[in-house]
Amino acid sequence: MFAFPRQILAAGVAAACLAGGAAHAADIKFGFAAPLTGPQAHYGEDMQNGLTLAIEEANKQGIKVGGSAARFVLVSRDDQADPRVGVQVAQQLVDEDVNGILGHFNSGTTIPASRVYHDAGLPQIAMATSPEYTKQGYDNTFRMMTSDTQQGAAVGKFMVENLKAKKIALIDDRTAYGQGLADEVEKAVKAAGGTIARREYTTDKATDFNAILTNIKGAAPDAIFYGGLDAQSGPMKRQLVALGIKAPLVSGEMTRSDTFLKLAGDAADGTYASLAGVPLEQMSAGKEFAQRYEARFKKAPGVYAPYAYDGAWTMIDAIQKAGSADPAKYLPALARIERKGATSEHIAYDKNGDLKEISVTIYQVRDGKWQMVQTMVSQANQ
User: Fold this and answer.
1) In Å, how far from its chain's centre is CA 154?
2) Which of 71, 158, 362, 376 has the fewest Cβ atoms within 10 Å of its own Cβ atom?
3) CA nearest neighbour of 185 among 99, 249, 277, 234
4) Which residues form the signal peptide (predicted)?
């Protein structure tokens, strides 16, 4: 990957000097941390690219903060999707005197790292979807995507009502993300009138699932839900098919990837995955975003790039509205933000820092490609 653990990425050059030779303000630095090496590096790279595009665009616009042209800079760290490393790089970013945090990616690293940022008074907009992230009572935590509470409710209802699955087996990888999503799905299944036939556990490093799948086969479920990463759901689907299990595999947004398709191979067809948000082509400015992204990075954006892009612009807009990059001064503006973005025309937060607009899309693999099945958009209860 092109990013390294202690790399400082200056995203874009400063805007051209304004008429009259106005001085530039000091750099406004955004801290970013995600897995940039290892099996989850494709997630981190996708997120970093979205942030980079937003920051480069902002620098070209010559945005003024406090009367001077601002130069936004992205300070990147590799947290390796490891909670311990996540806390270490969080402290590194604080020591770099960054003005805000755009990250982390995983819930398991975001939650412990968020305590470091809270103590430092730094606003944080994270990709993490675990409900626990914004349930800590912090006033500085915000999301880029719909939470797992909202996503899990939609998935559980979909399995019972749309797939007519009354008996559902659950598997999770014991990470904050995987376990948290499976917990929410379990609640929703029961609320919709379904039952949990069996619940099994694995890890985010496992590759052999034959034992737990054999146990699940004996319970004869109508559907199987997996909370975890594509590195596990891909081989899991292959093994599920090899064991002759007919129940469809359903998973979350980390499975809705090209990596899953490659790992599952011919066995991928029939798999369902939920994704917070709407399809890129249905996003408020998704088509335009995709065009700019492909021109910059020479490839199509992944799942997380547009949400990261909006997260960066949301923080930039809050700084503009406050007229200051001082975290204490622009944090209130961030909490009150209402703006149009690439992913939604209604980006705004509730009192906890969760997005007010709830959107979840269900996809299915058909002929080796992810195809949209159903999109649900609603407003969170305030």
Assistant:
1) 17
2) 376
3) 249
4) 1-25
Count other C-beta atoms under 10 Å from residue 88's C-beta. Answer: 16
The DSSP call for residue 379 is E
CATH classification (class only), 149-275+362-379: alpha beta
* Whether 46 contacts 301, CB under 8 Å: yes
* Torsion angle in degrees (nearest 10) through CA of 325, 329, 334, 337: -110
pLDDT at 13: 37
pLDDT at 351: 95
CA angle 137, 351, 76 (to 5 degrees): 70
Region of 353 (left: φ > 0; alpha: ψ -120 to 50; beta: rest) is: left
- Give me the sign of the Cα torsion angle 40, 255, 295, 98: negative
Low-confidence stretches of the chain (pLDDT beneath 50): 1-23, 382
Beta bridge partners of 377: 359
Top-level class of domain 28-146+281-349: alpha beta
User: Letter for the amino acid at 302?
Assistant: G
Supply angle C-alpha 267, 374, 157, rounded to 5.
90
pLDDT in tens, 119-174: 999 999 999 988 899 999 999 999 999 888 888 989 999 999 999 999 999 999 99
**Would you list the domain boundaries of the chain?**
28-146+281-349, 149-275+362-379
Angle at 60 between CA 57 and CA 63, to 5 degrees: 95
Q: Which helix (H) or strand (E) holds 188?
A: helix 176-191
